[in-house]
Amino acid sequence: MKVLYTSLECYPLAKVGGLGDVVGSLPKYLNELGCNTEVILPYYDNDKVHQLVCEDVFSETINLGIHHYDFTIKKVISSEFGFQIYLVYQKELLFRPNVYSYDDDTERFIAFQLAILIWLRNQEIKPDVIHCHDHHTGLIPFLVSQVPAFQELIDIPTVLTIHNAQYQGWFSYDKLDYIPQFDLHNIGLLDWDQCINPLATAIKCAWRVTTVSPSYMEELQSQANGLEGLLHHEKDKCVGILNGIDHTIWNTETDPMMIKNYGDKNIVSGRKANKKWLCDEFGLDVEKPLFAFIGRLVYEKGADLLPDICLETLRNLDVNILILGSGDHQVENRLRSVKEEFPDSYNTYIGYDEKLSHIIYAGADFLLMPSRVEPCGLNQMYALRYGLIPIVRRIGGLKDTIIDIGDDGFGICHDQVNVQDVYNSIKRGVEFYENQKYYREKQKEIVKIDHSWNNSASKYIELYKSLK
Ligand SMILES: Nc1ncnc2c1ncn2[C@@H]1O[C@H](COP(=O)(O)OP(=O)(O)O[C@H]2O[C@H](CO)[C@@H](O)[C@H](O)[C@H]2O)[C@@H](O)[C@H]1O
């Protein structure tokens, strides 16, 4: 069986968040189980992509209304990723340093999708399944099923995975002419609330829809940024499959990004060395428990509350806090300003730094995840694997993966997202940490929990097989 993943992100070539991690790892595990999975993403203007050796395998032109854009499909010549990667090189729209947040994202995403389908239409051996990730490739299920120009592809089953239903890719009908000709009687498939909504379109047109945890699938029925009714209507083709993590990359014994590697036997000294580096680098006190946050500084992650959570905590408890993230500029500035009041126990790195994130997982004592919405969350799984205790809000995938220490589990959970509840959880964390024997026992327990893709990859294969 041959499956093609269409995605804007794929670690290590392009990663903004968890989507990159999933698309960069699940295909590896699927291939090991005999499901030939390939990934196609844009050819970005970044160092990782520039270093690749590629072969041009196809060239054509995309029409977006009155505009014409030449593109080339490049096949990556390398086996280091564990799966075959193809890249769409399109100079004007896709060859950019960043993945998102350009004014012409709509044009970019449509061009990417059209290029993929034009290429597939011309391929002799077609995939058995096209698996689309998030709204950026959400028009593919519509294009394949409704556009006569792609009728050679009409029998290929399409799957959509919703990594985050907050973002839907809405655009106005002014841009309808970017979509190749189709029967206008079916225009309703593109529509949601008088806009073209690629996520809604994919939910309507894909053969199957998955989300990245079972709890998130349930939550979407009542909270899906306007798509609740649609998801409820389509619930029979929807399923929640918990994400996994890549145990080959997230491996404390071999991770090249850490300061000191460690295994079961030297976990305490190994983690101490990573913590010491963090504390030296960020001017913190290595003797105090270190609470960290890693992630996009957006409302869904509860990032707007972080400055007040930090202030409340640092005014009352003897701890360190370290924040790694970027996003909302107002939140970034407020987080920077916390340092003025607490220069010796608080610091922040505003930006994206993959290596630093690995050292934080390897050296901090607790990881904060006060998410308002968390479709799955990978950070808590990385935390468990590396031996730091997650403090999470019970929502989505966090609810599916973390059990509170009070219920004989290994994490700290709270039900609401507000400063007081998160502060109370941090306080519980401090008490937990003070009992070093118990803390170390739990640490040894959590690093053994297996959240690798081994558990979920076979569920995807079952799903693909059911589409035949
Ligand atoms: N500033 C920074 N520097 C370095 N690394 C950083 C970073 N900010 C984030 N990261 C890394 O990016 C990843 C974020 O993963 P999440 O699952 O939390 O994210 P996200 O919300 O992007 O993904 C969405 O998709 C994923 C995958 O399906 C779901 O798990 C999730 O719930 C959903 O919101 C982690 O690997 C984290 O370490």
UniProtKB/TrEMBL annotation:
Stored SUPFAM superfamilies: UDP-Glycosyltransferase/glycogen phosphorylase (SSF53756)
Starch synthase catalytic domain ranges (all copies): 2-232
Residues that hold ADP-alpha-D-glucose according to the record: K15
CDD domains: GT5_Glycogen_synthase_DULL1-like (cd03791)
Tagged with keyword Cytoplasm: no
E.C. number: 2.4.1.21
Pathway as given in its UniProt record: Glycan biosynthesis; glycogen biosynthesis
UniProt keyword list: Glycogen biosynthesis, Glycosyltransferase, Transferase
Residue intervals of the Glycosyl transferase family domain: 282-443
Catalytic activity: [(1->4)-alpha-D-glucosyl](n) + ADP-alpha-D-glucose = [(1->4)-alpha-D-glucosyl](n+1) + ADP + H(+)
Role according to the record: Synthesizes alpha-1,4-glucan chains using ADP-glucose.
Family: Belongs to the glycosyltransferase 1 family. Bacterial/plant glycogen synthase subfamily.
NCBIfam families: glgA (TIGR02095)
Protein name per Swiss-Prot or TrEMBL: Glycogen synthase
Protein's organism: Aquimarina litoralis
